[in-house]
């Protein structure tokens, strides 16, 4: 196996883990809304998830571990995606919020601050900010 194959394989596994985390959040109310399904379809393309992988992840998202990114900005990107899937159906159920907080800790956010971080993320997504604004606001929320 070449070095580039190893990198590609690791990249694909991280993407699958990230996508599975989002599917977990989307499934906490045990169904997908049409908006959630459309978001998942679009995200799968962006994350280079094949049709077969997509179906496999939908069937068993718990099979894939949460792989926290090393870089803070990448954690912010994942939090942005997760907050958007929670917000997309405009109905934040208790299970979805709890799952988002758990996954936030799994992504590497401090357990003591995760409530504040998730609340801020959801408020920004509610305002329909883009990714760059989201990251800027999250990085500067204590200033």
Strand content: under 5%
Gap from first CA to last CA: 47 Å
Which parts are unreliable, with pLDDT below 50 for 5 consecutive residues or more?
Answer: 1-7
| Integer count of domains | 2
Number of helices: 7
Specify Rg, calculated over alpha carbons: 15 Å
Overall average residue pLDDT: 81
Helical coverage, percent range: 55-70%
Count the beta strands: 0
Protein name: Tellurite resistance protein TerB
Organism: Flavobacterium limicola
InterPro entries: TerB-like
Structural notes for this entry:
This protein is mainly alpha-helical and 143 residues long. It has two domains: 67 residues; 74 residues. The protein is 68% helix and 0% strand. It is built from seven helices and no strands. Helix 4 packs across helix 6. The longest helix has 24 residues. The termini are far apart. The N terminus is likely disordered. InterPro entries: TerB-like. It comes from Flavobacterium limicola.
